[in-house]
């Protein structure tokens, strides 16, 4: 189904488009689950799934016509809903500061440089 929309995250895109068309969201929690999810069993499968999600979310966030910051505000989405979808769609970019903050202390210890000025 994701190829129909041109995105790998069709659930995100479908929910976002329905919100922009004026649909209202509700939380429904049945007594017994109607669907039991399937999850990756190996680390390689999990990494492939996370990469697929990251690529799909970045495709939606950097597209000219579907960016959550611009498209939702031009249509019937509220500012809070557009910001929530933007936060979720730009989630893959968090890997950059996390990687820097994870590697910076190790490099400074190896090179003998102080992290903070004296």
Automatic annotation (TrEMBL):
Q: Which GO terms describe its biological process?
A: cell wall organization; cellulose biosynthetic process
Record carries keyword Transmembrane helix:
yes
Superkingdom of origin organism: Eukaryota
Membrane-spanning segments: 91-116
Gene Ontology CC: endomembrane system; membrane
User: Where is it predominantly found?
Assistant: membrane
- Keywords (A to Z) from UniProt: Cell wall biogenesis/degradation, Glycosyltransferase, Membrane, Transferase, Transmembrane, Transmembrane helix
Pfam families from the entry? Cellulose_synt
- Transmembrane helix as UniProt keyword: yes
As for subcellular location, the record says: Endomembrane system
Single annotated GO MF: cellulose synthase (UDP-forming) activity
Q: Supply the name of the protein.
A: Uncharacterized protein
| Origin species | Nymphaea colorata (pocket water lily)
Taxonomic lineage is: Eukaryota, Viridiplantae, Streptophyta, Embryophyta, Tracheophyta
